[in-house]
Amino acid sequence: MGTQSASHRFELLTYIWCDGFRSYVFDEQDKPLVFDSIEEAVAELQEDFDIWARQLRDGKRDYDFDPSEFRIKCLETNERCDLELFNGKLRLVSIDDNQREGL
Q1: d(Cα 25, Cα 13) in Å, to the nearest integer?
Q2: Residue 71 and residue 84: Cα distance in Å, rounded?
Q3: 82 with 71: CB under 8 angstroms?
Q4: H or E element: which one contains 34?
Q5: Most buried of the four, 10, 50, 79, 94, by CB within 10 Å?
Q6: How far apart are CA 103 and CA 100, in angstroms?
Q7: What confidence score (pLDDT) does residue 5 get?
Q8: Where residue 98 falls among pLDDT bands split at 50, 70, 90?
Q9: What is the DSSP secondary structure assignment for residue 59, as one 8-state letter?
Q10: CB 67 within 8 A of CB 89
């Protein structure tokens, strides 16, 4: 999946039990927030993971989120990437063709 293009936009998704993957972040009009690059989408989510990690350390949060609960989707091609956490930083993981059939 390309990382940036004038014609490609990206959306952050989160897994919701019973609903599957749905939009994660919204704009002022309550529409899904769209990013011009995968890097922008990852950076947005990384900020949330950093806040959650800080809250856990400070005892202000009892649970953490798993990167597998999130996904980035290209709106034009419908391609999706999963995420994983490595040394506190999010990175993209391609979804293999066997998993695509169920999306």
Answers
A1: 8
A2: 10
A3: yes
A4: strand 34-35
A5: 10
A6: 5
A7: 52
A8: very low
A9: T
A10: no
Q: Which two tokens stand for residue 101?
A: 């059939």
Provide the pairing of β-strand 89-94 with 70-74: unpaired
Query: In DSSP terms, which residues pair with 12 in a beta bridge?
Result: 72
Q: So what's the pLDDT on residue 94?
A: 80
Query: What domain range includes position 65?
Result: 10-100
Q: What average pLDDT does the segment 25-40 reach?
A: 94
Q: Domain tally for the chain?
A: 1
| Pair of tokens at residue 19 | 């609903």
Q: What is the DSSP letter of 10?
A: E
- pTM, two decimal places: 0.81
What is the rounded CA–CA span in Å between residue 98 and residue 91?
Answer: 21
